[in-house]
Amino acid sequence: MRNLLVLGLVLAAATPASAQSDKAARCETSAKTVMEAVQARKDGIPLRRTERELRRALDRDTGATLAQWIYELPEDQLTLDVGRDWEQKCLSQ
């Protein structure tokens, strides 16, 4: 969970001070990215491949950290709640 908080802070810091709708759109997009990575894990995609894609979508450090976090989650936690929680944390930053 610490990594999730760190990633949330990283995404929030990358968000320029702009309209609330921009933030909401950015948080929704990042939550979709998280859920794509969760689905990749559920589909049996190797960690390194998911990490590589996240690095392209985000940046080197954030992508690697996010991939590690998702692949460390217990399998029973790989639900839509991951994306919803991510989006809520993003919006609260």
Tell me the layout of helices and strands.
Layout: H1 2-14, H2 20-42, H3 47-57, H4 60-72, H5 80-92
Helix pairs in contact: 1-4, 1-5, 2-3, 2-4, 2-5, 3-4
Structure description:
By secondary structure, this protein is mainly alpha-helical. The protein has one domain. Helix content is 78%, strand content 0%. It has five helices and no strands.
Distinctive features:
single chain, 93 residues, mainly alpha, 5 helices
Question: What coarse outline follows from CA principal-axis ratios?
Answer: globular
Q: Overall pLDDT, averaged?
A: 85
Model regions low in confidence, pLDDT < 50 over at least 5 residues: none
Order of helices and strands: HHHHH
Note the total helix count: 5
The beta-strand count equals: 0
Percent helix range: over 70%
Summarize the main sheet.
none
Number of domains: 1
Helix-strand makeup class:
mainly alpha
Short description:
The protein is 78% helix and 0% strand.
